[in-house]
Amino acid sequence: MVETSQEGPRAARSLKRSLARAERRRKLRAFLLVLPLILFVLAFFAAPIIGMLERAVVDRDLMQAWPRTAEAVKAHDWSEAEVPGEEVFAVLGPELASSFEARTAAGVARRLNYDLDGGRSLVMNTARSVARLDETPPAWRDAILEIEPRWGEPATWTAIRRAAGPVTDFYLLQTIDRQRVADGSIASVPRERAIYLQIYGRTFAIALSVTLLCLAIGFPIAYLLASLPANRANLLLILVLLPFWTPLLVRTAAWVVVLQEQGLVNQMLQFLQVTDRPIRLVYNRTGVIISMTHVLLPFMILPLYAVMQTVPPHYMRAARSLGAPPFTAFRRVYIPQVMPGIAAGSILVFIIALGYYITPALVGGASDQMVSYYIAFYTTDTVNWGLAGALGAGLLAATLLLYTVYSRLVGGVRGVM
Fold it and tell me: Where does the ABC transmembrane type-1 domain start and stop, copy by copy (predicted)?
């Protein structure tokens, strides 16, 4: 009798262990199935982004080529308008010669040129002259100043101090038109160099304009699709998805042809006597907004259509039957139910528009380029990876902020509903 009473709990524990093992095996199989995808994302998506963002705060060019000079500059007690004495120049001189012979001076020259006008020529000319000296000079400070007097300017040593690394805020501050001066405080850059806040403002203004246009055009289209029978809605949905089957470069080039002075739009406007001469619709902000709206419109329609399909039509009829005017019923009953679709479509279009490159580059003018254009420019043309990474970090921060706002907005709407 006792053995029978003990077999029940023992069998239950054995069954529980078997179920736990089966659950662990199931989770392990599921993990192994998605492991290749995780590794692919980490290797080809996350790692390049992390590496790019790292360059925004890491500054090792000067420290690797002139390690003793970097340490001496960081240890020096600075005043705002001071040039170091002989002890720092005595370290700088030999490292100028050795870096020229090792061909590492070019990296320092490039880095200083980001911060100092003529920094490249300053470093390369001095390093070349120092490397050709027949003997060690009795006073390195006098010898270097004789070769290049700009080493006696405080601005040169302020730039060297900012580049001494290994961690820097130079690039991040530059993207908000700020810089760190000799005494360590943060100040605004000169007005002629203050361009990045304007670029960010332009990028957000274009993205917001495109988002609002896509919402204004996409909402009635999605409403029409949701109110039609399924067979007719599917046919019209194919037309909405049709732009996805055309390469982006082809669509953008087509807008250049359509919007040019002798293009279809100008000819139609003149035929209808809206204008008496061609108006400029391309290579300016108007062309950028029109072409980007066309490209991104499906990303607004699809989330709206998906949410509108779930809204029962009898809610609006019930509101009308209770005496609500059509607009009031639409505003108080329909809009709150489709707000998740509005939020999803708007945030999707806005985030994609923030990082757009091809369309503004081909259709816009010099004053219409967005942040992505300058990221590409600093990556490929000037090889300023630090500034490109800092600009990318700004876009990433904006995207994360917008996603947070979207999550709170959708969560608040669901809580009200």
Answer: 200-406
